[in-house]
Amino acid sequence: MSEKKEILIVGAGLAGISIAWHLAKKNISFDVIDCGINHSSAIAAGLINPVVFRRMAKSWRVDEFLPYADSFYKEMSSELGQQYFHPIPIRRGFAHQQEYDLWIQKQDEPGYQAYLKELDEEDINFNDLKNICGTGKVLGAGYVSTKHFLEDAKKWLTSNHQLHTENFNYDLLNPETGTYKSNQYKLIIFCEGYHGLDNPWFNYLPLQATKGETLSIESNEIKTNETLNRKCFILPIEGNKFKVGATYVWNDRTLNTTEEGKNEIIKLLDLLISKNYTITEHQAGIRPTVLDRRPLIGKHPVFHKLTIFNGLGTKGYLMAPLLAKECVEYLIDDKTLDKEIDIKRYQSKLNN
Q1: pLDDT per residue as tens digits for the range 135-191
Q2: What residues contact 218, with CB distance under 8 A and at least 6 apart?
């Protein structure tokens, strides 16, 4: 890191890559420090779902997030040479009559036609899922090839001499001057995922480590033109390969896979379909989540050279592109952050 850069990004997962891309578009010089091991972004299925099923409601700000995410991933695909976002509808199996009734109610409401396909006889009588109340198809959904996305983004950073694989040492940072080791930065942006729990300047924020386990399976009997969903998801990846998940265990930072997690997914999978399949892989990762389900973005209230961009949670691949743009505009162009994501909402906790 001999060449002087303006900004230091800590973390090269989804959050850090999204920030880096937007800084590059503004011709802002930066370094990225990453430990080289990703326990969230790379493990994630990369699902993009515009609907919250438990309320049959649109995801928060989806009308803004979805088109921007689509353009963001297309831009990266064009420049890096590989397709990352793959549109694929979600087939939701209704667990009970109330879900069916909610869908009927919502599908004709303004703003929902782009996401909830109007039910027809095929949906109601769909027989590839175990259910008693029919199914509905979610439009505008898809997934990001997380492994290829992160690998290619890191190659892009490496080719520009911006990625430095090492552990970040908090003891070597002067928060007042923005000096790390012998390099002084105008801003330092922490995009650390669940490692943010150990950050001495932002550990007052209610970040949680939410462990999740997934299975990779192969099957010649499951259809590959839709993601299947009810209590778990079955995401077609390529050919006869699928990703299935996921479990949720709060405040667990262990990265080992468990028989309990595996058996939970198998149980949910067998409640969803009556198809033969073979398990090929079992993975575990840790999501950075927040109690109020809103990301943590903003400057430290005392050390203004320190910024956090974290807590993207389970909808990270949908939200990260636009939120990164808003974060960069907040830092570089002095624009105002959305109050729902600004860490000022937790400022009272700093002195508690």
Answers
A1: 999 999 999 999 999 999 999 999 999 999 999 999 999 999 999 999 999 999 999
A2: 240, 241, 242, 277, 278, 280
The Cα–Cα gap between 173 and 268 comes to 46
Q: Which domains does the chain have, with CATH numbers?
A: 7-43+147-206+292-351 (3.50.50.60), 86-142+208-289 (3.30.9.10)
pLDDT band for position 5 (cuts 50, 70, 90): confident
pTM of the model: 0.95
- Phi and psi at 292, nearest 5°, equal -90, 10
DSSP type of residue 43: T
Q: Name which of 337, 301, 297 is nearest 18 in CA terms.
A: 297
Least Cα distance to 194 among 171, 210, 177 occurs for 210
Phi and psi at residue 141, in whole multiples of 5°?
-90, 170
